[in-house]
Design goal:
heterodimer; A: alpha/beta; six-stranded mixed β-sheet; four-stranded antiparallel β-sheet; 7 helices; about 35% helix; globular; B: alpha/beta; eleven-stranded mixed β-sheet; ten-stranded mixed β-sheet; 21 strands
Chain lengths: ~250, ~400
């Protein structure tokens, strides 16, 4: 069974239709990369999957494990196992990072019928991830993303992913604003999540991240639709010839 | 007794109705200001007339033997409990402000010529619990607080009421903050179920180089207004923070006048307001810098979040300045919860209600976190949560 099936999705933001009949299937254990020019609808696709308030779906359906998610609230989708790493994680002054993470983790554990973790258990769980991501310990006691550099925000997104252990992972330009060390740490975190079952949707402008996270499929998104799907070899072609060289598949 | 009966009365008539000496100093000030109504500047946004028109039972305030306890308990205006060794007197007030802006400040003094005087000796930390047990009653009392020079004192105020209704509480402090000292007053008041209404009228006098921290946490519903007048001498500093978290039909807030009289005096006043349901929040605050107060620094700010379309915030930060040599600012914003922040939390599996609570608390935390004592902070946070879940 496919993990996620996107069927003929039409979606608009305001009065503008952005996704115009997009079809995409995510397979278990596979890494799918979405590439495309600016304004193609890449971020709208990620927002549509997680139920962002900006997006109105006018046609089509999205099935997660065979069940439509379009009527589900964002938190229900998250609890079911869908995770979006935001391109621009929002800053929330006054909300402690550790408290936020523990609240999110315990919401998931409750949903799965597991016991909630207390503060000590949670800290133990988190510490092992912090070191691997090269995050300073004080980042968890600060307000959520407040005053974080671009790299710190992205690491914090990956920390959340590692803690929540989602099944569908959407990474929206996770590589933007990262220096080489941060890119390595973030990629390592992502690669740790590969278990042969999880599906990844990596949205990116650049091939650089794909040197660290090896995709199984490359999808080219243009004008609101997937116009080509191929193996990783397509990246080199796109680097050399650009998106205009891609002719829509029948 | 209906307080509205005092309207338009002569000195003698007022004295007779209140059963007081017609020569009482407070009477002249009260008559000059007049009984407040909806046209009164200080009560324009607060339906005080409704409270004054009720027929209240009047209490006799007879001092009782004080039992030893960890905190001061003032029950219906009479001290019943206090920590061992604390000096508490029942005496005639010597510190009434001759130029307060609030007529109910003077009415309160007229009704209670004897005040509860609490001496804050040395570095001390006390709690005052105000208890109200009488229905349909006017509970009136005044407290005088005096600390010592070069000392640091903290007063934490809490409020507890029994199953009462239609009671009006008039109370307030006359505070003298001694030179080179610090006095912190933390007020946590959760009101619900229309058991009582409150008008609290305070006067704070800061001596040279004195520091006052006044933090009020007004939570829940019902009617309550605090009126604060603070006078600052040279190098004195006041840090006033007011958190409103209101729901239902609440009408609560702060009316204040901070007056810089001495050079190099500084003030910082911040209001955070979260309003749900049909609540009305009030922040009507003036900072006045007199000719004598060169090199003053005065900053004032109000921020409000409206959680419901019918919620309403009256925010009037004002500066009245008579000199050029100063630094001053004021501002006010009113908005709603940030949709992006709300979505971010929900996208991690946190429910809408929990996410909303986290953001509301985050907004309030900037003030709550200024309460350094974790015990007090926990009490305030628990009250906050109680209001949140009763309103959602």
């Amino acid at each position: 069974m496919k993990t996620l099936e996107i069927k003929n999705i039409h979606a608009k933001i305001g009065n503008k239709e952005i996704l115009k009949g997009l079809d995409l299937d995510l397979e278990p254990g596979k890494i799918h990369a979405i590439m495309g020019p600016n304004g193609a609808g890449k971020s709208t696709l990620s927002k549509t999957i997680v139920g962002h308030y900006d997006v109105e779906v006018t046609e089509g359906d999205i099935l997660y494990k065979g069940k439509s998610i379009l009527d589900m609230e964002p938190e229900e989708r998250a609890l079911e196992g869908i995770f979006l790493s935001f391109q621009h994680p929002v800053e929330i002054p006054g909300v402690n990072n550790a408290y936020f993470l523990r609240t999110a983790l315990n919401a998931k554990r409750r949903h799965e019928g597991k016991e909630e973790l207390n503060a000590a258990e949670f800290l133990r769980e988190m510490k092992k991830h912090l070191e691997m991501l090269g995050m300073k310990a004080d980042m968890i006691s600060r307000s959520l993303n407040e005053g974080f550099s671009g790299g710190e925000k992205k690491r914090n997104e990956i920390l959340q992913m590692l803690i929540l252990q989602p099944e569908v992972i959407i990474l929206d330009e996770i590589d933007s604003g990262l220096d080489i060390d941060a890119l390595r740490a973030v990629s390592e975190g992502i690669n740790m999540m590969k278990d042969g079952k999880r599906s990844f949707l990596v949205i990116t402008h650049y091939s650089r991240i794909l040197d660290y996270i090896k995709p199984d499929y490359i999808h080219v998104l243009k004008e609101g639709r997937i116009i080509k799907t191929a193996g990783p070899e397509l990246v080199a072609h796109l680097e050399e010839h650009g998106y205009d060289s891609i002719v829509e598949e029948a | 007794m209906k307080l509205s009966e005092l309207k338009g009365k002569t000195r003698e008539e007022t004295a007779t109705l209140l059963g007081i000496d017609p020569e009482a100093a407070a009477l002249e000030h009260f008559l000059a200001l007049g009984l407040p109504d909806k046209k009164s500047e200080e009560y324009r946004y607060f339906r005080v007339e409704k409270l004054l028109e009720r027929d209240y039972k009047i209490l006799d305030y007879v001092p009782k033997a004080i039992q030893e306890a960890e905190k001061i308990v003032i029950s219906d205006g009479v001290v019943t409990h206090a920590p061992k060794g604390l000096r508490i007197y029942n005496e005639r007030c010597q510190t009434m402000d001759p130029v307060h802006f609030d007529p109910l400040y003077y009415l309160s003094h007229l009704l209670s010529p004897h005040v509860i005087k609490i001496d804050l000796d040395g570095d001390t930390d006390i709690e005052i619990e105000h208890r109200f047990t009488q229905s349909n009653t006017l509970i009136n009392y005044r407290i005088v607080l005096a600390n010592q020079a070069n000392r640091h004192a903290t007063v934490f105020e809490s409020f507890r009421e029994e199953e009462i209704e239609d009671t009006l509480v008039l109370y307030g402090y006359d505070i003298l903050v001694a030179p080179d000292s610090t006095l912190r007053i933390l007020k946590n008041q959760l009101m619900q179920k229309n058991r009582y209404a409150m008008v609290a009228s305070h006067r704070i006098q800061l001596a040279q180089r004195a520091n006052a921290l006044i933090k009020s946490f007004d939570l829940g519903g019902d009617m309550g207004l605090q009126l604060i007048k603070a006078d600052l001498d040279r190098y004195a500093h006041i840090d006033a923070g007011h958190l409103l978290y209101l729901n239902h039909e609440a009408q609560r807030g702060t009316v204040s006048k901070i007056i810089h009289k001495g050079e190099h005096s500084t003030s910082h006043q911040e209001a955070k307001n979260i309003l749900d349901g049909n609540a009305r929040g009030i922040f009507d605050a003036l900072i006045k810098v007199e000719h004598s107060a060169k090199y003053t620094k005065a900053h004032q700010n109000s921020k409000a979040i409206l959680l419901h379309e019918k919620a309403y915030m009256v925010a009037k930060p004002q500066l009245e300045i008579y000199i050029d040599e100063l630094e001053a600012s004021h501002g006010s914003t009113t908005g709603q919860l940030d949709e992006k922040q709300l979505f971010y939390l929900r996208s991690r599996g946190i429910s809408y209600t929990e996410a909303r609570k986290m953001l509301v608390i985050a907004f309030a935390n900037t003030l709550i976190d200024q309460v350094k004592d974790h015990r007090h902070q926990d009490i305030i946070k628990a009250s906050f949560e109680e209001v949140f879940y009763s309103g959602s």
